Amino acid sequence: MIGAYQASSQARVDAALEQLFVAPSAELARLYEAMRYSVMNGGKRVRPLLAYAACQALGVAPEQANGAACAVELIHAYSLVHDDLPAMDDDDLRRGQPTTHKKFDEACAILAGDGLQSLAFGALLDTQLSPQSDTIRLQMVQALALAAGPAGMVGGQAIDLGSVGLKLDQKALEYMHRHKTGALIEASVKLGALASARATAADLAALQQYAQAIGLAFQVQDDILDVESDTETLGKRQGADIARDKPTYPALLGLEAAKAYALELRDQALTALQGFGEAAEPLRALARYIVERKN
Known about the structure:
295 residues, mainly alpha, two-stranded antiparallel sheet
């Protein structure tokens, strides 16, 4: 099921994203080319899929979440562009292709990331992409700003950079990853639910529990793949976290225990969805996919 769902959702969000990369003047053509390259050069689109699936779980057509889906993918792409820079993770390969600063240059990559961040919030306020009420659009902007900023993803990256060479315990490691990776995954689910305009407080609470579990599971599986996979399959340098002496779940728990923990988190996510009917099947499939994926 997840293959067909992923393909249709990718096509939907890619069509919406393409509209955002039209340069308004010839002078900005290279910047827009770099922004488009950073977003449209592949990727699993997990965050847009989660936004669409959360909207559908509440009985609303996924197209209502186009703005949310675009916004979370644009924030994700901007974070990757900046994370790959020499001042951060210094990566040359992303999705099997040169990173943005290698394809263009460092200054252009910084500006492309800045531009993608701005486009994300614009997508939530665009009435064509986000046809919700002004109140709901503002709630979506607030949720994304919190998840993407220093109290969320950016803060997690700061903790990550400051943790190189340190021996973190599980509580500290989870605190870091609930910010660095988990915050945007939680926002993806919340924005999709808000986009439905039907989410009750109970719905949002259950979906938050689901998202917290899969957000952590996503990072645990990433750490496992950094050990078990290869550069060609991953589309980025295998063993990079080990080489940088970063704290990871396999290093802390052991590989087999890390795998067991990923499955435990998957089960927690599925339990959180018990109150939802068949419309939430895509969310359930995504929880399973996150811990079964190979890249």
